[in-house]
Write a structure and sequence with these properties.
Helices cover 45% and strands 13% of the residues. By secondary structure, the chain is of the alpha/beta class. It folds into two domains: 55 residues; 151 residues, 3-Layer(aba) Sandwich (Phosphatidylinositol Transfer Protein Sec14p). A five-stranded mixed sheet has the order 1-2-3-4-5. InterPro entries: CRAL-TRIO_dom (IPR001251), CRAL-TRIO_dom_sf (IPR036865), CRAL/TRIO_N_dom_sf (IPR036273), PITP/CRAL-TRIO (IPR052432).
């Protein structure tokens, strides 16, 4: 379900907006809308920390070539079986990134390219947000036919880093479906890397009935 977002201090929001307006008037590429400013404030707590984090994200976006990633057809084609932004949304309107874990292998991928593809997916999904309604995402990890050779800790670390640094408060819910019993060992490691807020957004879904609380199961791909 859609959780109530923590309200931000309106005085802090006003101060952050004033600071960002000064910068954006000199360089329009630095602009962030109000929803984005509120997400950074919720994640980074103080005006100074949020301001610094936004500047770091803007610098990273330019250096990483985020705006050009959608033009990299070769990259998108190479990794399109690893994740997909679905046409449909979850029941509260969040865009969905679907990740079939069985298609991953830590021994058969270029970590830099795969991370670029993950950024492409995060961008694509974020652009699909109806921000006035819900400005965060649903990520579904499907562990059907998952084996330990599919467990790519480095890619997960990169995803966690991206979500915390450059897409703060963009994760609304992370659903883990069809998890085999032995995944508990992997989860114990992964959970240690998550802050309490993020760990609280991860839900293990054990039945189709439970899944229906979040999304209509029929929208999940069967061709990946």
């Amino acid at each position: 379900m859609a959780e109530e977002l923590k309200p931000v201090n309106e005085e802090d929001f006003k101060l952050l907006k004033e600071r960002m307006n000064l910068i954006a008037s000199a360089d329009p590429a630095q602009y962030h809308n109000d929803y984005s400013l509120r997400r950074y404030l919720r994640a980074f707590k103080s005006v100074d920390s949020a301001f610094q984090a936004i500047l770091k994200t803007n610098k990273w976006r330019t250096e990483y070539g985020v705006a050009e990633l959608h033009e990299n057809k070769e990259l998108i084609e190479k990794y399109n079986d690893k994740a997909r932004v679905l046409r449909h949304r979850d029941i509260v309107g969040r865009p969905i990134i679907y990740i079939p874990a069985k298609n991953h292998s830590s021994s058969d991928r270029n970590i830099d390219d795969l991370t670029k593809f993950i950024v492409f997916c995060l961008e694509d999904a974020s652009k699909k947000c109806f921000e006035e309604v819900v400005d965060n995402l649903c990520i579904v990890f499907d562990l059907n036919n998952f084996t330990l050779s599919c467990m790519d800790y480095q890619v997960l670390k990169n995803l966690i880093w991206l979500l915390s640094r450059h897409y703060p408060e963009r994760l609304g819910v992370c659903l883990i479906i069809n998890a085999p019993a032995f995944f508990a060992g992997c989860w114990a490691v992964i959970k240690g890397w998550l802050d309490e807020n993020t760990a609280g957004k991860v839900t293990f879904v054990n039945s189709e009935m439970d899944l229906c609380q979040y999304l209509i199961p029929d929208i999940l791909p069967t061709d990946m």
